[in-house]
Amino acid sequence: MQNIRTENINIHVIGVGGCGGNAVSNMASLCSHENIRFSSVNTDIAALHRCTNHEVVLIGEATTKGYGAGADPDVASNAAIQSKDALVTLIKDADLIIIIAGLGGGTGSGATPILIDLAKESDIDVMCFVTLPFKAEGGKRSDIARNALETIQSKANATLVMSNDSLLSALDETVGLLSAFRHCDTQMHRIVEAIIVMLTNTGYINVDINDFSHILSLEGDTALGVGIAEDDSSLSAALKHALENPLVDKQNIIGAQGVIAQLTCREEPSLAMYEEMLATLQSLVDGPQTLIITGVTLSPELPHFGEVLVIATGVPSKAQNFEQEKNVIPMKQASVPGSSKKDAAYLDIPAFVRLQGRELS
Ligand SMILES: Nc1nc2c(ncn2[C@@H]2O[C@H](COP(=O)(O)OP(=O)(O)OP(=O)(O)O)[C@@H](O)[C@H]2O)c(=O)[nH]1
Ligand SMILES: [Mg+2]
After folding, report:
1. In this structure, which ligand is nearest to the CA of 72?
2. Which domains does the chain have, with CATH numbers?
3. Probe ligand 1: pick from 19, 45, 130, 149, max atoms within 8 Å of CB?
4. Looking at ligand 1, which residue's alpha carbon is closest to its atom 16?
5. Please, one GO biological process term (predicted)?
């Protein structure tokens, strides 16, 4: 069976500030999906001039004159408010916005919360991928980053935090700074790419924007990642690896309220290995009433056997205090490929009915 494109889902990846612009430039050079749009927003016109492969929006020109926010998030926040109309126009056709920003400076930290507010006012889901600064960058930047992170986490549907310090432990100490940043960008790109493939390709078992939107609406922490399987027998290991990225601070999914596990394979996986992977997922979640949504897509051009994308939301902050109640875990396995993108109707259907999805054949 050939994967066929679903109807037009518009995913908009927006880099905010210098780090965001760099990451989006890298992603745009690696990614060529027709449903995805890339842009960068900055107070710094020189940084935007370096973004040559995607569209750019300069914010706050009247006050900052295009010279940046001087590491002051308030200046950047005001710049975003001043340029509200341009930002609203930028995001208006998106179904999902993925914001990428480095926290600790002015623009990424100050403009991102305003951009999220504007997206929410237009009823658009927002995922944020943010980096925390190196300790060596100093306490002031770290404080700015922590404050911004708290605000962003309270506003965005899901936030993935990558720590630049973890780059040091994950990579050889002799690696150059730019190579380290590119490594971080590559991790973000891999996850963003997996989300795009999941939402834009119709699979044997399909995760669509309604499923995704529902998972993103659950309150609590987020854990997400991608694991690679070299063969059929390593799907479970790939699922675990998805949550073991050394660049990411916390990846515990015990008690998550919702989980998407999207399997993309070069060829058909065996039913036994697929079931083993789902059993592993259930043991990792180990929670009551968790909605688990699984998707399976074939992608013959994949360079390895398979990839497992895991997105868990509604993760309790203190997983160790979580009271384990062994209730039934409702599992929604399928939605009908090609179902209407804004059709949220299935969410009103009781979980046990939603369970009656298509079998992998
Ligand atoms: N992973 C990664 N981190 C980066 C990159 N560039 C900067 N950073 C990190 O992101 C933080 C914020 O830096 P920028 O994005 O340049 O800052 P900004 O948001 O443009 O802020 P202002 O220039 O003060 O307006 C830095 O403290 C670094 O820790 C990058 O290309 N990749
Ligand atoms: Mg900057």
Report:
1. 1
2. 11-195 (3.40.50.1440), 203-360 (3.30.1330.20)
3. 19
4. 18
5. protein polymerization
